[in-house]
Amino acid sequence: MPRHKPPAGSPPRPQRHGAVAKAPKRQAQHAQTRLLERRHRLAHEAARLIAESGLRDYHQAKLKAAQRLGILDDASLPRNREIEDALREHQRLFQPDSIDALHSRRKAALRALEFFQPFDPRLVGPVLGGTADVHSPVELQLFSDDPDAVARFLEQHGIPAEPGGRRLRLDRERSGDFPLWRFHAEDVAFELTVLPCVHVRQAPLSTIDGKPMPRASAAQLRQLLVDEEIEGYEE
Question: The whole model's pTM is what?
Fold first, then answer.
């Protein structure tokens, strides 16, 4: 049957409502896709800067990456966790020697955890998280209500260490400054942060995602090394 033509001079038929509604939705989807692509590019550029320059500040790395790529809107800045994931991928693809550096530092960390056993130590940072490279120190948290106890322990064992300080976020509202000791052993840098014993049960917040930072005791790190060895055999 032939379609009926409207008489000359008739007003145009209105467009269907569905066609009008789909256009803004498609535009929003395209905008979201472009945003995710920019975040992905920035995360990988920030990861490259961290991996190749030894830069440890994720916020500074993402700002430098944004400047290099000419992406200036804050909405495109990736989260620190996205940068950390990109850093693992970058190391796997372009820095295979970082795997050996990570493994050797985890072994050195285990020996240090056993050595500092009187202070109920915990491993934190990139060596535990899996993003350590040849520039990364082994970061330990030691616990004592006597802030000079660790200094005396180091002196008794003839370990020359450089004093310093580290600021940590304890929760959403509180931060604190704590003693820090730096030294080298076995060609590896070590950083010891000394906290009151109450913080054995409550970890400070991570600079990566603002959640309680992951920590590992000697027993937990020992198990991690066993799991790594098993994975190596399976591959």
Answer: 0.77
What does the pLDDT look like over 14-43, one tens digit per residue?
555 555 556 677 777 877 888 889 989 998
144: left (phi over 0), alpha (psi -120 to 50) or beta: beta
Q: Count CA within 13 A, CB hemisphere, residue 213.
A: 25
Amino acid letter at 86?
Answer: A
Phi, psi of 122 (to 5 degrees): -135, 140
Task: List C-alpha distances in Å: 11 to 6, 8, 17.
Answer: 9, 9, 17
Question: What is the β-pairing status of strands 188-195 and 138-143?
Answer: parallel
Nearest to 139, CA basis, from 125, 153, 159: 125
Domain boundary among 39, 59, 94: 94
Domain that holds residue 220: 97-234
41 and 117 fall within a common domain: no
80 and 104 share one domain: no
| Contact criterion met (CB below 8 Å) for 189 and 164 | no
Are 56 and 121 within one domain?
no
H or E element, residue 20: helix 17-53
- Domain end among 63, 94, 125: 94
Q: What is the pLDDT of residues 37-93, one digit of tens each?
A: 998 999 898 888 888 887 778 888 888 988 989 888 888 889 888 988 888 888 888
Do 87 and 125 belong together in one domain? no
In a domain, 227, yes or no: yes
